[in-house]
Amino acid sequence: MSLQNNPQPSSGLLLNVEDKPGIGLTLILAAQHLLAALGGIIAVPLVVGNVLNLSATDTIILVNASLLISGVVTFIQSRGLGPVGIRLPSVMGTSFTFVAAALAIGFSDAGVAGILGSSLVASLVMIVGAYLMPYIRKYFPPVVTGCVVMSIGLSLISVAVDWFAGGQKTDANYAAPSTLLMATFVLVVVIILVQWGKGIFSAAAIFFAMLIGYIVAVCFGMVDFSSVKTAQVFAVPTPFHFGLSFPIAGIIGMSIAYLVTIVESNGNFLAIGQATNTKVTGEQVKRGVLCDGLGSALAACFSTLPFSSFAQNIGIISITRVASRYVVMWTGILLFLAGLFPVFGALIVSIPSPVLGGAGVMMFAMIIVGGIQMLDRVTRSRRNGLIIAISLGSCLAVTLRPELFNFLPAWSKEIFSSGITTGSLFAIILDRILPADKEVNEDAAEVVAEINK
């Protein structure tokens, strides 16, 4: 099926959720989701492995298992399996929300076995919580939903900026002119392909922009192939490689992290609905969160960390206007293969940060645009303005200054370390406690009275 012969004027999408493009086109479209997600998927096991001083062999096991299980859970989330899976284009991967709890457990006597055992038991929080999602949805009216979606985009922009500048602020070459030039070049290519590209070049703008950027980076010697040379060609993750143990403190810490993830996943699913022009129901969110919980339990059994939906891939849908869930099902298959063939993942990881950053700035900014569009349909009132201001302000405060919680109890860091969670919680709380829009009626009455004069 060619894109040229399948216009979608009513939805504004090139491919709707149920559209099935041809296999060649599908693989290209799936590859751009893979490129956007792969770095985030392997980042969490790499961080945990390095901080806990695991051996190279054990760290590779964490990484391979993350890729393989990400593929399985992404496929089920997008395709659906009975009562499991939201059946929308949602890429799944390891979540940074669990890193603090994982490291705290890892540094105790429980070690990695304690991390995985705590994750397995605490996943019940998400599994049980999934069945409450149809009731929880009432806490997400349009003003809250818009704030949640905007919080997702705002909290990710700093990640894209670091990619754009070439790494972390502590790096010697951070924001070097050559790095900024490469990232800007990729960003310009994305804009050109999205705005003036036709057919596949517009639908797969992220893929082609990153491919062009990668080729240019190779020509200028900016690509490090050392990880490719040392990577295994084939490897199968081993279930229960580290064993399991069940420390009470670890289970409590992981349970808090799962509660936070429920809020974040709900926001991501609402954002996917916005990007795909789909009204997401409470039943769909229940199936999506249930897939998160069961996928995280499976991850613990296969020796890796818990999962949640990835926000960065929502930006790809917004930019390319390709909402087909079958494309993301193939992304899951590619991730599964990457878990079996580590050399494939190593090749993707060799993509320089500025190449990712040029595309990432656009992807994450489009999520913010989606939130703005949702808030544009919200009644303009002092009450709603207050909710939006405090929600987005608190999200940015936590995102820009995470050291705000340096002197607070550890449990507070678990809850408020994420800008997405902080912004969402403030929006939900304020929406419940602030009086209804009485002032709107009063303002309208004043206007009518003024006209009558």
TrEMBL record:
Gene Ontology molecular function: any one: xanthine transmembrane transporter activity
Where is the chain membrane-spanning? 21-47, 59-76, 88-107, 113-132, 139-161, 173-194, 201-223, 243-263, 327-349, 355-372
- Recite the UniProt keywords alphabetically: Cell membrane, Membrane, Transmembrane, Transmembrane helix, Transport
Membrane topology listed for this record: Multi-pass membrane protein
Q: Name one Pfam family in it.
A: Xan_ur_permease
Which cellular components does GO assign to this protein? plasma membrane
Question: Which InterPro entries does this entry report, sorted A to Z?
Answer: NCS2, UacT-like, Xan_ur_permease
Q: Where in the cell is it found?
A: Cell membrane
Q: Which domain of life is it from?
A: Bacteria
Task: Tell me its family.
Answer: Belongs to the nucleobase:cation symporter-2 (NCS2) (TC 2.A.40) family.
The entry's protein name is Purine permease
Tell me the organism.
Psittacicella hinzii
